[in-house]
Amino acid sequence: QKEVEQNSGPLSVPEGAIASLNCTYSDRGSQSFFWYRQYSGKSPELIMSIYSNGDKEDGRFTAQLNKASQYVSLLIRDSQPSDSATYLCAVKDWGNNDMRFGAGTRLTVKP
Amino acid sequence: DTAVSQTPKYLVTQMGNDKSIKCEQNLGHDTMYWYKQDSKKFLKIMFSYNNKELIINETVPNRFSPKSPDKAHLNLHINSLELGDSAVYFCASSLAEESEQFFGPGTRLTVL
Hints:
The complex is a heterodimer of chains A (111) and B (112). Chain A has 111 residues and is an all-beta fold. Helix content of chain A is 0%, strand content 55%. In chain A, strands 2, 4, 5, 9, 10 and 11 form a six-stranded mixed β-sheet that branches. A five-stranded antiparallel β-sheet of chain A has the order 1-3-8-7-6, with no helix packed on it. In chain A, strand 9 (85-92) and strand 10 (99-101) form a beta hairpin. The termini of chain A are far apart. The model of chain A has no long low-confidence stretch (mean pLDDT 92). Chain B has strands spanning 4-7, 10-13, 19-25, 31-37, 43-50, 53-57, 64-70, 73-78, 87-94, 101-103, 107-111. In chain B, the strands form two sheets. In chain B, strands 2, 4, 5, 6, 9, 10 and 11 form a seven-stranded mixed β-sheet that branches. In chain B, strands 1-3-8-7 form a four-stranded antiparallel β-sheet, with no helix packed on it. The mean pLDDT of chain B is 91. The interface between A and B is medium-sized, with 24 and 23 residues.
């Protein structure tokens, strides 16, 4: 069974702090990694994609991938109350069309 | 607007009925998907279509049948609805199998 694991939270950080979200996966064949943000009652929205080991930065967001450790993370710098949402980690291998999601981590940024 | 759209947004129906949810994307993507998100917010893939060909079919009941009249549309038909079918159903699309997916707004199905 190919699993994607996330700490369900809730994770609470003060405004302006760094929020760190973590995800582990079991399938070593995984090649594509995605972070989605989902506000309550809304659809998942793509934040970051990462395909190779290391860091990828986009504005206040940094995705980190370590394939040897089967670990992917998302850092949110200068967290804002508007960042409060559930963050979904998704993992895909190129051998099939099966993208698997973690259960999500609920983040709350307190003003 | 370029997007993935779904109709209806809300669907309330009785057990045993048959219903359909429609999905359209004008992004020019080759692959479309249906996901189910249950009350625990766990998002699970149900089907995907690539150029009108079913690629994967997770272990969903055969009461669920995807129908794709063309590359831009993937509809979901559900027969003999059950209480456990109540969930939010999301349509998504991607340019290629390995690329990121973009989601529609979701359809909240409630079976009474």
